[in-house]
Structures are given as structure tokens and as C-alpha cells.
Amino acid sequence: MPSPRSPLSRLFTVLLAGALAGLVLAVAALPGGLLGGSVAKAALGAYAELPDALRTPAQPQRSYLYANDGKTLITTFYDVNRTDVPLAEIAPVMRQAIVSAEDRRFYSHGGADLRGIARALVANLRGGGTEQGGSTLTMQYVRNVLKTDPTRTAEERQAATEQTVGRKIQEIRYAAALEKTLSKDEILNRYLNIAYFGSGAYGVAAASQRYFGKAPADLTLGEAALLAGLVQSPDEYSPIDGDKARALERRAYVLDAMAETGAISAAQAAAAKAEKLTLHPTAQPNGCTAVAQGHDDWGFFCAYLRQWWLTQPAFGNTVKEREQALRRGGYTVVTSLDPKVQQTAQQQATGVYGYDNKRALPIAAVEPGTGRVLAMAVNRHYSLDENPAGQANHPNTVNPLISGGDSVDGYQAGSTFKLFTMLAALEAGKPLSTGFDAPSKLPTRYAAEGEGTCDGKWCPANANPAWMDGYRMMWDGFGRSVNTYFVWLAEQVGPAKAVEMAQRLGIRFRAESDAAFAKDDAENWGAFTLGVAATTPLDLANAYATVAAEGTYCTPLPVVSVTAANGAKVAVGQPSCKKVLDTDVSRAATDAARCPVGQQSAYGQCNGGTATSVDRIVGRPVAGKTGSSEQNATETFVGFTPQVAVAGIAANPDDSTDLVGSPVQAKVIDAVARVIKTAVGGQPVKDFTAPSRELAGDPQRPKPQPTPRPHQPRQEQDRGLPSDLLRWLQNRRG
To answer: Which residues, including other chains, have CB under 8 Å from residue 291's CB and lie 6 or more apart?
Structure first.
């Protein structure tokens, strides 16, 4: 950044100006024809030698992140606070002010102004300082480009500002070459977009926002004059960080210059001088911890987007190049974040647990058929601020509690994993009517010892035998969350098929123990169907979104579009989807998933559910599943319509032994249902398509089943893991 000039520097400038004046006067004494030919030849030669940065400027610009409406600013990323704007979007008084202040003969000289250099020499000798500079706007532009060109070495950038006659002559040659190839307005536009105005603002767009909180098109005469006066010594004259009185003196100088050139009248200059300096300092946010005030919950989505960005080859070959592209490339990113859905999700998460609660309710919302992430909320501040002693992740954290990664493996999601067993069974040709007389306890083929075993075998149990035991099919087995039915079903198709199905739908095993089980011993992972593997709300919501989209899996996507600084669209905003399930299989699973939420399947086979309040809250076709891990350590609900899938998991991110308890299940169900309601609000009502008769099968029950009272949610719990198996799993996990 420029700094106040020392007496020695000022003396050197005066001497340099004198030397240059002598040089240009000598050149001016040449015969006219020779002079014209020499200058033209020199300029053309210089153009051939121009650095690429002067031919095609690639100056760093900040990137903007917007919500999915394209208007709500989430944050910006930058190394240099700068954004290019076309000349038409800069107030005419700003253009006139900078020309009057810095280069009055800008529209008549050819790059180097002999009269301007001589005038500056006289003025500086009289004033004993450097009140006027000898450089034209074109020469200043050349210097600014070369000293900030990211493709040049630090030494080369430093050389661009050395106070030597040789450097100045090269600057003049480059300026003359540019004047031969660019229009005056293009040069002026480029200059206004790169000049430093102090307080960290590069270019007139950033300066207008920094000092006055407005666009450059809206600058008044007084504001434009103040900005134009800053470029000579930006930090010294800055009314925010420097000397406000000097800033006003410079404003008066510019206004007088504008009157002298005829850009404004003397009366207009006097009126503008009399105006009180009114600033509206606006600090430009930078990064995910600087999201819009009052919306620090957006930081979790922002961080997820940034991690996604760093994996995209379109922005560079390496992570470092992609990071640099985000901070210097001037991209406009319209993200998939829906402010209304996000607001509801955050309100619901904090309504269940406050910011200071050690327990958390991370919630994620995904759009089926595109994978676009609509919301990521949790009762935490996305912040690097310190937490009270002994509190690792609350109330402040930047850990990915919703999406997983880094140190976050996820949380057990209980019976929500029964979906993967059901899908595997349906894919294997077993219809929804597949029946089994589910006992209270089911001896399995998996060897186990200790309490809760049956003759040396793992013996899972139903949480509510009176309500769960008996002849069940997939519909009511899923609706009532019957453990022994689904453990039996997993044995029929093989647990490995259920594990593979989960992975196919995007469930990632981040915990080392889970990954090892999936890789080496999936066929003996009988407890998998009860949701003992860790997952995240985002993975779970997207897996259920795949079923909602009738078998089309889409990679989670945090953007709608990305536009480069030159206006070109970057090919990264399109969904990446593939068919991973047969359509009829997906429809059959959805038909069974109508049962838990209090709705009826297409074949009339729902007779009770664990989340029947969802039907009343959402008020349109909806499906879903609850999940309670062992001893209610976590409580989960995931629901979906054809337009959205939402998952929430109540857990303690820092202590898996802290049991959230069964009473919170109803709150989690309510929270997720209300997020679904917001997400589909205003959208047309869409129904699910019924599965084929072939995949439904023949739902003949051997005995009548009692029907519970309407809208009476039943607490479920995925009990039945013997204590020694639990300890073994915990040891493997930790």
C-alpha cells in the first residue's frame, strides 16, 4: 500500500521530474515528422514487448456468494478487496473528478504528457513538495498493473515502482503503446478499476462501498471528489484510517480542478465544498466467519461450499490454485441455500436446544433430483471465538457438524437405516407383503456373549413388544419400527446387501470402525439394519432424497451457478445424477415409508406409525422414518416429499455417552416436519406414485391386527444389542 512520502523521496521526485522534463523537451525539439515516426515506431515496439498483464489484465477481484435468489449476499472471498465495473456503471462526476485531479490533458495526450510533466515540475518546485505528479493516468495504470500482477515475481513487482529514469522511460513506452491500441475510455475504466483508494479498497467499486456504502454509479459530486483526491496518498488522506482534515483539503483541490477544466461550475464547486463529510463505512465480509450480520448460521453452509469448491478441477489443478481462484477470481456464485428454509431450520434447531446446550440438533435439507443443498442448520454459532472452559464445540465452532468430515464422523441414526435393508430386499425380489411373525426377541446366527444373548447368539429385542410383536410385513414393520422383523429380513437378503445399498445411496462410513466393518465383515454386520453406523444429517437426507427421486442419486451440490469475472458461465452448477435404484423399488419403499408418518399406503396396509404428527404438520403427501439409537443416545427423524428431503439428528457431538433421551424424539420429529412444510410452501402438491402390484405382492394377513388410536406417536428404541457387543463396537469406534 502507498505510504506518506519522505522529504528524501520528495526531493528525488523533483529531480526525477526535472530529468524527465529535460528528456521529453529534447525529444520535442526533433523535427515533427521524425518525432511522429520515432514515437509511433517506439510505441509499436513497446506493444510487442508488453507483459501479458497489460495486454489482458487479470487483476485479483473478490468473489461473491449469494443465496439461491441471486440477491441475498452470504459473504465474499478476497485477498484484495476489488471488483471490476464497466465505465457505464461509474458516475460521470467520478470520471471527471479523477481526470481533473490526476491528468487534465488525458483526452489529448498520447500516453505521456510533456506539458503535464513540466507543469508538475514547476508546481512542485514552488511548493517544495509533490502536490502534482508528472505521470498520466495511462502511466499510473501501467505502474499499478505491473506492481500487482500475480504472474510476476516479488522482485519484478517491486521493480515496477523503483524511482529510476530507466523504469520511468519504460513506463512511458508502455503507456504510449497502450494508447495506440486502447480507447481513452477503456484506459480510464481500467484505471478506475485498479487504483488504490485507501482503507483496503482497490478500484472505485470497492471504494464506493467502503466509504459510502453505495455503488459507484450513485456517487455524488462531493463523494466523487473526495475519492479522486485519495489516490495521490491513499492511506494518509483516508477519512477512515488517515487524516480527515487532509481528505477534505484534497476534496477541495479536486473540486477547484474540476471547475478550472469546465467539468463543473464554480458555484457547484463551492456548494460541494460546503457539504459536511458524511461517511457510511462498510467493511466487506471476507470468508465464512464473516457472513452477514445476524446470520452466522450460514457459515456452516459456506464452509461446505468452500470444501466442495476445493475439489473442482474447473477452478485449478491443485487445491492451492482453487483456493486462489476463489479469493482472486472475481466469481459470482449463486448457491443453493434457500434463506427461508435455512431460517426455519435454524429456528427449529435452536428451539429444541439453545446455543449453549452441549447437545445439538443438526438439520440438513436436500432437493431430490438435483442434490442441491437447501439448508444446513445447527444450534451453534459458526465462529472462531473462544468457548468457555471445558466446552469444545459450544456455543462456537467451525467443525462440520451437519455434513461431516475433519474430526466429525457423524452420529448413530437408529432405525432410519432399516430403509437400506428394505430396499435390498425389494431389489432381491421380495415384495412389500413379505411376512414374518416377529417375536419379542430374535435369536440370530451372529455369535455373541453376555447379557442380552440367546444361547450364545445375538438376540435383538423389540422396544415395545405389545405394539410391535406379531405378524408383520414391510409396511407395518417399517411403520412400527419392528427390530426383530428387520433383523430377520436382513438375514434373508444378507447384511452385506444392506451395507452396499447404503453406500450406493451416498452413506459414507467416516468412522474407522464402521469403514472396517463395511469393508471386511459386512456379511456379519447384523446390527447394521438398526443404525449402529455413524452418519450425518446431510448424508441421510440425500439418501432418502434418492428414494424420493424414484431411484436417482445426485451428488450433494451447494451451487446453482458460477459466473466468472468475464461473464462466462463455469460448467459446475449442473447436478451430477445417476440412476442407482429401479423406479418400482423406490416407489415400493416410499409406499412403506408412508406408514411411520401417519399416512396410508397405496394398498391400505399402514396400521400405526412412530411419527404420526408429521401428517398433520406437513398437510400433503409425505414419507419418512424415525430412529432411536441404543438407550436413546441419539434421536433421528428423516422425512421427504417429492420436492424435498430433510433429516435431523439430536446428539451430543462431543460425548457419545451423553444420552439425549426419548422425550426429545417428538421435538425432533416436529422440527423436521416444519422444515419440510416451509420448503414445499408455495409449491404444487405432488403425490407419490404407487408401486406395481407385483412388488406390493399379496398382502394377506393370517390374523387381524389392532389399530392404534389416530395420531398417537409411539416411542421406538433400537434396543437389543448385548452389552458385550456394545462395548466391542465402542472399542472399535474409539
So the answer is: 74, 75, 285, 298, 299, 302, 382
Q: Are residues 421 and 524 in the same domain?
A: yes
CA dist 435 and 418 (Å) reads 16
In a domain, 364, yes or no: no
Residue ending a domain, choose from 262, 286, 310: 286
Q: How far is CA 490 from the centre of its chain?
A: 39
pLDDT one-digit tens code per residue, 561-617: 999 998 999 999 999 999 999 999 999 999 999 999 999 999 999 999 999 999 999
Instruction: Please choose, from the candidates 446, 439, 490, 443, the residue with its C-alpha nearest in 3D space to the C-alpha of residue 462.
Output: 439
Question: Of 517, 516, 471, 525, whose CA–CA distance to 498 is shortest?
Answer: 525
- Shared domain for 508 and 531, answered yes or no, is yes
Which residue from 86, 76, 73 is spatially nearest to 203, judged by alpha carbons? 86
Q: Which amino acid is at 283?
A: A
Read off φ and ψ for residue 133, nearest 5 degrees.
-105, 155
Tell whether 646 is covered by a domain.
yes
Rounded to 5°, angle at Cα 182 from 253 and 136: 30
Cα 386 to its chain centre, rounded Å, is 23
Task: Kindly report, residue by residue over 144-202, the tens digit of the pLDDT.
Answer: 888 877 667 777 778 877 878 788 888 888 999 999 889 999 999 999 999 999 998 99
Structural domain for 261, as ranges: 197-286
Specify the amino acid at residue 85. V
Same-domain check for residues 148 and 113: yes
Taking phi first (over 0 means left), then psi (-120 to 50 degrees means alpha), and beta for anything else, what does residue 87 get? alpha
Residue that finishes a domain, picked among 163, 194, 225: 194
Residue 332 falls inside a structural domain: no
The cell for 203 is 478500484
Looking at residue 278, which CATH number applies to its domain?
A: 1.10.3810.10
Side chain identity, residue 704 = P
Contact between 330 and 317 under an 8 Å Cβ cutoff? The reply is no
Please count the structural domains in the chain. 3
Residue whose C-alpha cell reads 423389540 in the numeric block: 462
Alpha helices in 635-722 (DSSP H): 664-680, 693-696
